[in-house]
Specification:
16% strand; eight-stranded parallel barrel; TIM Barrel; alpha/beta; binds (3S,4R)-3-hydroxy-2-oxopiperidin-4-yl beta-D-xylopyranoside
Length: 348
């Protein structure tokens, strides 16, 4: 038997360390990060974050390896960025923009023309002139500050009722039929390179009142020269509802045909609690199919998650009895939905 000399022992140890290093290298080669997969597939894979998330190491680590875009879940809404008409709170957005640049991520803005989370002074507007002036000032001030740094904006949000008519909001009521024209034109003038988006929920299906109304409205806006570049389907889904993949693809294709891109922009998939085998499977299916559609439709290529884990999710507050909508659980453990989403994203 060969004697184990000091040199041999050193060689053996070196070999073991080398094999271990090689195995680690191979493992990381074999499984590129979700962010790399998205980059390779030419996709935006994004995450909505709260102001504190960029200071939370665990979240930051996941963000860096998974996503190539972030969007403020609340920090750019009027009530936060402009709590008083003459008082701007830039600190959260400035920090997020810096964070995104430092980590080579894109950043999306959300949102300007909306009925919720406005400053109280918005609701005391009285005339068309006042409304046009304030909205234009708001859009211009934010987009000028972040010109060339924020690549896309939800300029308007949730403008439709379920029957496809326009929602009665302060902006529509005071400004009138050209309320969207005012907002999108101000946005284009402030930053000509930013992508300008009309965002809503329940507009993802072709063949529904709201889905078809949104398509017709964007078509008309384009025909009269209003600068709208994209539509965003929020997709706060309910796992138990039927999922019509073909109607989503059909909708994306008709927008794509007129040069308007689509995005799945606030994705979460809630279940009626408790989570069980049946609704887990339904939830997995929605996550996987949405990612697969975004990967394979040239007119989409963008999927943004509305939060990472069930811990900070807005769902239990907004929809009592529902929850478990995200891909990490309350303890930041990956759920089956995580793997389903990754499968859709990678196609494997
Ligand atoms: C939600 C946020 O997630 C919550 O934190 C906040 O309390 C309310 O707004 N559609 C949108 C988002 O466009 O801005 C909403 O975000 C969810 C519904």
């Amino acid at each position: 038997m060969k004697r184990l000399t000091a040199t041999n022992a050193f060689r053996a140890a070196f070999a073991i360390v080398s094999i271990a290093a090689l195995a680690t290298a191979l493992a990381s080669c074999g499984s590129p990060s979700p962010r790399k997969i998205a980059d390779r597939n030419g996709m935006v894979f994004g995450l909505a974050i709260k102001a504190g998330d960029i200071y939370t190491p665990e979240t930051v680590k996941i963000m860096k390896s998974h996503f190539n875009l972030i969007v403020p879940e609340d920090s750019m809404k009027w009530v936060n960025i402009r709590p008083k008409k003459d008082f701007w709170n830039w600190s959260d957005m400035d920090a997020m923009v810096d964070f995104a640049e430092k980590n080579r991520m894109r950043i999306k803005g959300h949102t300007f023309l909306w009925q919720d989370q406005n400053g109280p002074y918005v609701h005391s507007l009285k005339t068309r002139e006042e409304a046009v002036e304030l909205l234009t000032d708001h859009i211009t001030t934010i987009m000028t500050r972040y010109k060339g740094r924020i690549s896309e904006y939800d300029v308007a949000n949730e403008v439709f009722n379920e029957d496809g008519t326009l929602r009665d909001t302060i902006w529509y009521r005071l400004i009138g039929d050209d309320f969207l024209d005012v907002a999108f034109k101000a946005a284009r003038a402030a930053d000509p390179d930013a992508k300008l988006i009309l965002c809503d929920y329940n507009t993802e299906y072709a063949g529904t009142a709201k889905g078809d109304a949104s398509y017709e409205l964007v078509k008309e806006m384009k025909a009269r020269g209003v600068p709208v570049d994209g539509v965003a389907f929020q997709l706060h889904c309910m796992a138990e509802l039927p999922f019509n993949e073909e109607a989503i693809r059909e909708n994306i294709r008709r927008f794509h045909a007129m040069g308007v891109s689509c995005s799945f922009s606030e994705v979460d998939v809630r279940v009626k609690l408790p989570l069980d085998e049946v609704n887990t499977a339904q939830q997995n299916n929605v996550y996987e199919r949405l990612a697969a559609i975004a990967r394979t439709e040239p007119g989409a290529k963008s999927l943004i998650l509305w939060g990472l884990s069930d811990k900070g999710s807005w769902i239990p507050r907004a929809f009592p009895g529902f929850g478990s909508a995200n891909i990490f659980d309350k303890d930041m453990k990956k759920k089956p939905a995580y793997y389903a989403l990754m499968k859709g994203l990678s196609g494997k």
